Structure formats: C-alpha cells, structure tokens
Amino acid sequence: MSRRTSKPESDGDFLRKAFKQDPVKFGGGDEFGFDPFGFTLYECWFVIYNKGSGLPTHNHFPYPLTFVYYINTPEGCSPLMINDQEHIMKEGQLIFFNGHDDHAVSDSKVDGRSVLTGVFSYDRARE
C-alpha cells in the first residue's frame, strides 16, 4: 500500500485509523462494531507426531480462531481432519479454522510430523 504523508505511518496504524473512521467500509462488520484488530494470540504450542502418535477429535471452543503452521510434513504423515474433511498440508503452509470446529489427526505411520499451533481470543473492548 502506498500513501504520501508528511509523517511515515505503518500500514497497521493506517488501517486502525481508517477502521475507527468507518468500521464497516474497512472490514468492521456491522452495527455490532466488530474490530478486526481485536484478536489476541492466547495460547501457542509445538507438537511433534512420531510413529503411532495422533490426536483424538476435539475443538477449542470458546476460542473463535485456531491455527496450525506446518513445520515438517514427511511423506506419509497423517492429514489434518476438520469436521470430517481431510486436509493434506505441506511444510510452510498455515491453516486457520473456527475454534468450535472438530478436528483430529489419525495415528502417524511415520516419524517427524511437526506443527506450531494455537488459539486466538477476541477482546473487542481493547484499545
């Protein structure tokens, strides 16, 4: 994004000001005042799946947003299942999904599948 101003301003600062001026136009949702900057990384953890390890079906309710970043995906590693839909991910890919979505990883047939994962909270009252 290119803007000419007398004072350099980061894109984040520009978007925050624009959002406050017209929240609907700049991704602010509706009359309830959704704040796209109101998300906070609440928890984050690292997981290594070796042969025979997996993750039973679960969700992260009440957190609204979950992510998984794929660090290592050896050939033959188990896919991510979200609401019974298979997602075959590659190293360097990032996936976001609703915190209330059921997800699982079946027992691995290989060593070394590694991910960084976490949840975001939403605090619309923050300034």
Q: Whole-Å distance between the termini?
A: 24 Å
Mean pLDDT: 84
Helicity range of the residues? under 10%
Number of strands: 8
Write down the CATH topology of the largest domain.
Answer: Jelly Rolls
Number of domains: 2
| Content of β-strand | 35-45%
Q: Major beta sheet, specifics?
A: 4 strands, antiparallel
Please give the CATH architecture of the largest domain: Sandwich
Q: What is the number of helical segments per DSSP (H or I, 4+ residues)?
A: 1
Q: Could you list the spans in which at least 5 consecutive residues all have pLDDT below 50? A: none
Based on Cα principal axes, name the global outline: elongated
Taking all Cα atoms into account, the compactness measure Rg is 19 Å
Structural class: mainly beta
Instruction: Give the strand line-up of the largest sheet.
Output: 1-8-3-6
Can you walk through the features of this model?
By secondary structure, the chain is mostly beta strands. It has one helix at residues 11-21; strands at 39-49, 55-58, 65-72, 80-82, 85-87, 94-98, 103-105, 113-122. The chain has two domains: 1-34, no CATH class; 39-122, q2cbj1_9rhob like domain (Jelly Rolls). The strands form two sheets. Strands 1-8-3-6 form a four-stranded antiparallel β-sheet, with no helix packed on it. The chain has a four-stranded antiparallel β-sheet with strand order 2-7-4-5, with no helix packed on it. A hairpin with a 2-residue loop joins strand 4 and strand 5.
